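Two proteins were folded this term; both appear here.
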Amino acid sequence: MDLMEKLVKLENEAKESIEKAKTIEELRELTIRYLGRKSSLTEIMKSMKTISKELRPQVGKKANEVKTKIENLLNKKEEQIEENIFLNLKETEWVDITEPGERFEKGHLHPITI
């Protein structure tokens, strides 16, 4: 399997994984998995020095496109999850500001009356 096929496979795999993610923690793990130092994409970038000079610009361009697509997908999914969290909080933890608050007792008992 050549590097271009690996990049396409990696991109499709990343899209599926990102779409399935439901929490921000899962997205952080996916970020490390696909964009981290030990990721497949990084390995492909490192192995570019072994391919021919004619293919290097094409593979490099495709690798950068895949990287930016994955970053954009991760950012969009993170915004979507944060928005859902905010909407859930808005529905469950709202406060009616027109309702009177707690009343505090003014003063205290005289020490002799205790």
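Next, the second protein.
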Amino acid sequence: MGRLCGPRLAALAIVYVALAAAGQDVDTDELFEQVFRADSAALKGAGNAWLERSYGVQTIGHGYYSPRPSPEPPAESPAESPAESPAESPAESPAQSPAQSPETSPETSPETSPGTSPGTSPGTVGDKDVSPAPEPACTGVAYDGYLTSCTVWADANADGMKGNAEPSTTVSIGEFTFAIGTTPSALGTLYLNTAAEGEQQVQSGSTVCHDRTTLLAVKFPYAAPQPASCAKPITISPLTTLLVAGAPRGLTVAQLLESLNLPAGFALLTTDTLGAAARGNADAQRVYRCDVQLIQLTLTGARFLVKTKAAQPAARAAVLQALAQQITASAGRRRLHAAEVNTLTIDLGLGSVIEALLAAAHDIAATSVPSADLTALDAQVLAAVANTMAALNAIIEASGGDIDKIQKAVVVAETTLASKVEALAAGTLTPEAFAAQTTPEALNSALGAASLPGAPVVPPEKKSNKVAVGVGIGIGLGVPLVGGAAFAYWYYTKKARSGSGVLSQPML
């Protein structure tokens, strides 16, 4: 193992130092993963050979071991059970069912493994435990800015309500972990409990669910599809929420990314997009800007659609459903008119797109919100609101990788713009006055005056990356040096004792 790992890690350390000295942004997780993945196959083969030589055992699958077969003809083994090779499922599908999970099926037991002889425990060799490693804990990240003091729960029975027996946990500084032993199949669609409608901005350390950077109480209805695996952290974000809203219409990650003109293949369900954006990843920055545009669209649109706080949750859901419908309809038209792909993307920075979206959301909201609580749609008012929302989204898009500026746009949407939209919907502000007070120049001015009273955005992985680099460099440089010194000591000691060497005393 030392011969395999030592030179590899030493080379890794040299590459890392060289790239860092050149000013390159080094993804240490990717570097370590590539090196260890390359070595893992060789190490596994070496380990299996050692077990066979030392204990007379061989690998039979699923991490279990069995005595080496005797020369006698073995008994006919049963046919391989289909349960041992679950069908491969799309990793990014929001409608993932428990049966499609890539984890090892619990139906495959050691007792049914061919080659296991009576009296031999497949989980041990002698007194050594060689059982498979336990399932990884189901962990994740939730963000607009990183959320905190929020409850995440799994709708395991798909009834849309949090049951006492359903898995739940608390989000702290953007991260959450379900109880040890919780498997993906025990989870369902993930939901985050929002703050009460009367909450607006809280103090740092509040027990109210909030964004720890803006200190705004969370009103956006965060959700994420049931995870297929817990091998990677689960992401709960505005865009994963849109996937859940579109699940009844079969909305997929690929459709969402293509329709919103986002990087194809982006791992939306397992990437801490905010953290990657803060570290300068260009693709993550594009996705994060869209995340924030979606928040602004949902919260501001809902304020316009209904007159009461009690109706706000239904209005937010209506906006998300309307956008999901637009995306799936756009995907259908794209399949029919492949040559018109560029004209069928949905630009959330266009007033005409948002105007159509709000009109559709109004129709959806009308199915669950009392008519007395609905805002009557007036063409002039609708156009004024849509154009202002589009202007703010265009400012967000133009912010590039400026995470603070993007976060301040949320503050403007939830304070300055929110009050004006409510006044317009109530009829206390005319469309002309609203348009004059919410020009792109006025929005930029409000954004410049906005502040972020909470904690700055610091990606959770940053600290662990530094530790990994230190350990990697230490091991990579240390193993070859220690191994070389030990060999030199043994060699010269042997020569001295045999009298055949040129030294009469050990070297050390």
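Residues 56-68+116-133 form one domain. Residues 249 and 332 are 12 Å apart (CA to CA). These notes refer to the second protein only.
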